[in-house]
From TrEMBL:
Gene Ontology terms, MF aspect: oxidoreductase activity
Protein known as: Dehydrogenase/reductase SDR family member 13
Keywords: Oxidoreductase, Signal
UniProt-listed SUPFAM superfamilies: NAD(P)-binding Rossmann-fold domains
One Pfam family of this chain: adh_short
Protein species of origin: Triplophysa rosa (Cave loach)
């Protein structure tokens, strides 16, 4: 009898773990998005591409913001085919370059009238530095998106109600921010071992959450709302992180 209880207990624990951390929540909304414009960063593969397909299927105009032209064009073709929508556009964005972020924003603001949803999805789990000498994970996962969001904010206010979604990770729970280090080392969080990379990634994902909280506060009353999330675990390129 006790063994049966134990087995049942373990089964329930595994189920809860799976639902909580692996499967994540599921979106049951049937909302259509005709007339809405959406940007998804890092949408040539993985979660970003799947998101782009879903939003295009719902009628949104979807801008794939990608760093690589060839991979980006291939993704546009796939998103168009899978969604059955022709309203899918590629724009170049390399979040590891603040110059590129600025030029993306300029191009976007010139050519697009509105921005209803910004999805800050791109993410890296790798060591290195950005063009501006920032740590790669800090620079791409947080700072690049921070600048991008700020440059697009006025247009989002004009398009309100609009929303900013930043894809974080459950690993933000393991992150912390050393503000002294942040002041003195642009490369915030360096180190080569896998455990260092894991930690720095977690810090960058905590930045995503804190940024969302602070921005949400600042935007109260504007009808621009902010969200961060853990997408669930998927075997994409950024395996299980
Ligand atoms: N997969 C998971 O289980 C999991 C769990 C928790 C959180 N997340 C988060 O979910 C998000 C998407 O992850 P994923 O699993 O879909 O990863 P992925 O398959 O590796 O895709 C990452 C995307 O980000 C792009 N990217 C990387 N560096 C960039 C840069 N400098 N400028 C612009 N785009 C850049 C990549 O472009 P390239 O193809 O050119 O490299 C790719 O399109 C990330 O923020 C990740 O942290 C994922
Ligand atoms: C926010 O949305 C509500 C409901 O649609 C509207 O009444 C209000 O005027 C909006 N506020 C701003 C600042 O746009």
């Amino acid at each position: 009898m006790n063994e049966l209880l134990l087995i049942a207990g373990i089964f329930i624990a595994v189920l809860i773990f799976f639902r909580q951390f692996v499967r994540g929540a599921q979106c049951k909304s049937k909302t259509k998005l005709h007339g809405k414009t959406v940007i998804v960063t890092g949408s040539n593969t993985g979660i970003g591409k799947a998101t782009a397909v879903e939003l295009a299927m719902r009628g949104a105009r979807v801008i794939l913001a990608c760093r690589n032209q060839v991979r980006g064009e291939a993704a546009v073709a796939v998103v168009k085919r899978e969604s059955g929508s022709k309203n899918v556009v590629l724009m170049h964005l390399d979040l590891a370059s603040l110059k590129s972020v600025r030029s993306f924003a300029q191009t976007f603001l010139k050519s697009e009238e509105r921005l209803d949803i910004l999805i800050n999805n791109a993410g890296v789990f790798a060591q290195g530095t950005t063009e501006d000498g920032l740590g790669l994970m800090f620079g791409v996962n947080h700072i690049g998106h921070f600048l991008l969001t700020n440059l697009l904010l006025e247009r989002m206010k004009e398009s309100a109600p609009s929303r900013i979604v930043t894809v974080s990770s459950n690993l933000h729970n393991l992150g912390n921010l050393d503000l002294d280090c942040l002041r003195t080392h642009k490369e915030f969080g360096m180190g080569d071992s896998l455990i260092d990379i894991f930690k720095i990634y977690s810090h960058s994902k905590l930045c995503n959450v804190l940024f969302t909280h602070e921005l949400a506060k600042k935007l109260q009353g504007t009808n621009v709302t902010c969200y961060s999330l853990h997408p669930g675990l998927y075997l994409t390129n950024a395996i299980l992180v």
